[in-house]
Amino acid sequence: MSNKDAYILAIETSCDDTSASVIFNSKVISNIIATQHVHQLFGGVVPELASRDHEKLLLRVIDKALANSGISLRKINAVAVTAGPGLAGSLMVGVNTAKAISFGLNIPLIAIDHLNAHICSINGGENTVVFPFLCLLVSGGHTRICLVKNWFTINTIGETLDDAVGEAFDKIAKILNLSYPGGPIIDQIAKTGNKEKFKFPTPIVDGFNFSFSGFKTSVLYFVQKELTKNQNFISENINDLCASIQSSLISILLDKFIKAAKTVNIKNLAVVGGVAANSELITCLNELKKQKNFNVIFPDIQYCTDNAAMVGLLAWEKYQQNIFADISLIPYAKQ
Ligand code: KG4
Ligand code: ZN
Question: What is the pLDDT of residue 293?
Fold first, then answer.
């Protein structure tokens, strides 16, 4: 182990996943994710319940991440934590735990932005990252297009004006009587559906911005109208509904993203965040790659939804530049 090498313990508690990871330089050694199931009963994340579950789970998750890595806490050289954006109470659990570890072991504390960590998740697999690249960040809380010049210079050139695309998947799943989180369920059911069966309007939004709230409402009105004619409409058409809705959402994303890439004249593209696990999106991206017009990379599927490994990967970049926080770190709910 040279002077520059580092074991980093990373913590993620920004929403409803309690996660800890151990990284050695840029290599993920362990990554434990405890997804909180308590929210399923409510069809969405309940902030107060999320913080309570983080408090219950975090130390056990950290112990497991250390045990799986074979590295003892004493050997850890720095501790990294998501400082925001996210749910205020949930962030506080992770940040206060990281502060205690940093203080107790006298090791540096590294504050990580959750969205930038999602972007850095592409470092977790076999990808070769070439700067600058254009990144489509699609999660439950955010939808944006970022121009990534390097890990510390990330400019947003477009974003959603209302709901995030993951949120649209989740809310539409609720309309279709499916459980939470809706994205992976719609993805699964859509596999045996006809995506041409139903047509939904494409939102018209300026520039590289998005809007998904109107789209969700158009699905709601369409389903309500059909239910007045046939009360079994949803169950009889669920596969075609999921396939058509998913296909529309993915083309809204990709049309804007490709338009942005052509405008800023960048051929290196990345897609990250929970919705990057979507099979239709992955198929379309692989098609783009085949046409060789763009180089497209996306994270290993295990690093798409919230996880601490992506926090550790960005922390390693900061560690090498000595960019550290201190005990006065305060989590931020909004970026
Ligand atoms: O990145 P993430 O774990 O959390 C946030 O930072 O928000 O993303 C969670 C979101 C949820 O909205 C979930 O429905 C969506 O990602 N998601 C998917 C898929 N897997 C997760 N959406 C569509 N298709 C999937 N396969
Ligand atoms: Zn996230």
Answer: 80
Pocket test for ligand 1, best of 36, 191, 305, 334 (most atoms within 8 A of CB): 305
Length of the chain, please?
A: 335
CA distance 288 to 301: 19
Instruction: From 22, 79, 98, select the one nearest 307 (Cα to Cα).
Output: 22
Output the CA angle 16-17-20, nearest 5 degrees.
Answer: 150
Q: Of all residues in the chain, what percent carry a pLDDT higher than 90?
A: 93
CA distance 98 to 93: 9
Only one residue has tokens 């806490």, namely 73
CB distance 113 to ligand 1 below 6 Å: no
E-assigned strands of the chain?
Answer: 7-12, 17-24, 27-35, 78-84, 109-113, 133-138, 143-150, 153-159, 268-272, 295-297
pLDDT of amino acid 3: 67
Q: What's the rounded mean pLDDT across residues 45-69?
A: 97
Q: Residue 160's Cα: distance from chain center in Å?
A: 15
Residue whose Cα lies nearest atom 10 of ligand 1: it is: 140
